[in-house]
Amino acid sequence: MSKEYDLVILGGGTGGYVAAIRASQLGMKVAVVEAEKLGGTCLHHGCIPSKSLLRTAEMYRQMQDALTYGIEVNNLQLIFPKAQERKDKIVNTLYQGVQSLMKKNGIDVYQGYGRILGPSIFSPMPGTISVEYKNGQDNTMLIPKFVLIATGSTPRPFPGMPFDGEHILNSDHALQLTELPSSILIIGGGVIGIEWASMLQDLGVEVTVIENNKTILAGEDLAVQQEVLKALESRGVTILTDTAVESDTIEINDSTIRLSVNTQGKQQNIEVDKLLVSIGREANISEIGLTNTSIQIKNNVIQTNEMYQTKESHIYAIGDCIGGMQLAHVASAEGIIAVEHMAGKSPDPLNPLQIPACIYSFPEVGKVGLTEQQAKDAGYDIKVGTFPFQGIGKAHVYGEPIGFTKIIVDQQTEDILGVHMVGSHVTDLISEASLAKVLDATAWEISKTVHPHPTLSEVFLESALAVDHVQIHG
């Protein structure tokens, strides 16, 4: 059986389904091919389930301090299966919502594995999609004018430590734990590793983090790195930086894992119940038929131009499979640009310096633009305004007056180069900074924007004023 479409999308994750909806709005006849479930990694194995468990961890941490708020809680206990049940309910609710969006927008969904075919009887150009089904039914041939590859990524294993789902876990496995271990070693002090470290520590697990670099959160501003490190260590997380894991020393029995690590020439042995590997993700680009095309691969990701066209001009690619920032909201934005370009629109290219990024640990982190060091390395003459949440009334009301906001400004033009936040609810606050970047606002303009009191957003007002050393409450 064969069917014709204006656009066929390989992958129904956040980037894929958002692109499908936008294409439908533009009048295209669209199909999505998804081997698993619509929503992809973000909905089923990443953003949503992990943030659901992080919310449980936040509640548990705060309730242990309930007496401070005048509330006595007796016999407080964590029932982890209930937390998992809540997580699964949230995921299922949103999954149903995505399915409804596909129907509402008239998008055909094929539950199968899609492969790109080369030139054939169906088309003189590569791009026909063969949909293979698990139940063995005959393949369906989809013949599109355009193809969008949005196949995402999967967790990268540590060399010499293949995932087994029981002792050596990736983040997908960790989300399916039925009970919490008493101790865990996390290899990787990047965003995902630090989120898991924060969550599990709050849930009562003894956590050790190992990072090969000299610092955790290598892509963050130095002041943010130091603040998060201090906060995690104060809550009992052991963090070993500049440390190498010796995979050939690993020993696994039924209940424990033993291995050796080397920290600046000093060897030590570690014994834990579980090991979580969080060292990045690999693009899902094998076995999808790229060899039937002239699409270029570099560093194991698909190469595209700024409109997300590959070397095959009718085949586009977005999201984790092209590398970049590997964020769900980035994939969505890329998908919208790609389909608008297919439709003959003239979308603006995505500017990475206007894209916010968040870390949902405690404390949270939000950023947009350049770090202080990046700004200096780029040759800017800068001035910096920093203001602590300690000086914000609402932060004290929340009982979490930790962290700060930092605004980096070009001294010559007054343009905002970067904003970095660490503290309570900053992942919800960072969008104001993103809007300021898009509008090319200055710190002075933020300082002239009246912010309501008492709110956490007042930290923007104060840090903007601090750029010129005229902050009010600090």
Question: What does it look like?
Answer:
The chain is of the alpha/beta class. It folds into three domains: 2-154 and 282-342, FAD/NAD(P)-binding domain (3-Layer(bba) Sandwich); 157-279, FAD/NAD(P)-binding domain; 354-466, FAD/NAD-linked reductase, C-terminal dimerisation domain (Enolase-like, domain 1, 2-Layer Sandwich), CATH 3.30.390.30. It has 13 helices and 24 strands. The protein has helices at 14-25, 40-44, 47-63, 80-104, 171-174, 191-202, 222-234, 328-342, 372-377, 393-398, 426-438, 443-447, 458-466; strands at 2-10, 30-34, 108-111, 113-116, 129-132, 140-149, 153-155, 168-169, 183-187, 206-210, 238-240, 243-252, 257-263, 266-272, 274-277, 281-283, 297-298, 301-302, 315-317, 357-359, 364-369, 382-388, 404-410, 416-423. Strands 1, 2, 3, 4, 5, 6 and 19 form a seven-stranded mixed beta sheet that branches. Strands 8-15-9-10-11 form a five-stranded parallel beta sheet. α3 (47-63) runs antiparallel to α4. The chain is globular, with a radius of gyration of 24 Å. The N and C termini lie far apart (70 Å).
